[in-house]
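To: structure desk
From: M.T.
Subject: fold request, one chain
Message: Could you run this one when you get a chance? Sequence is below, nothing fancy, just the single chain.
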Amino acid sequence: MLGQRLKALAQQLKRELAVYRQVLRHPQTPWLAKVFLGLAVGYLLMPFDLIPDFIPVLGQLDDLVIVPLLFYLGLRCVPEHIVQQCRQEVAQASAAGT
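Reply: Done. Structure tokens follow.
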């Protein structure tokens, strides 16, 4: 049961990251949204943390706060119709791939 929930969560995360990539590539995405989303993706892929994990509480909270905040701010700058269009493109691509 827990394994299935984790697998579903991982698939949802993978789908959301694909949507964010599509939003970043979309020609009508505002530059500020591209900055926020690019920073979020870059922070996720960074091999080091701005606040090292060995610092109690703050080391773990930076990953749990900074990345979602950057994604949130980035998506707030994007018109809803662009996000929906990108979600549909990702859904169609995943349906065609399965």
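Reply (cont.): Residues 27-97 form one domain. Let me know if you need anything else for the meeting.
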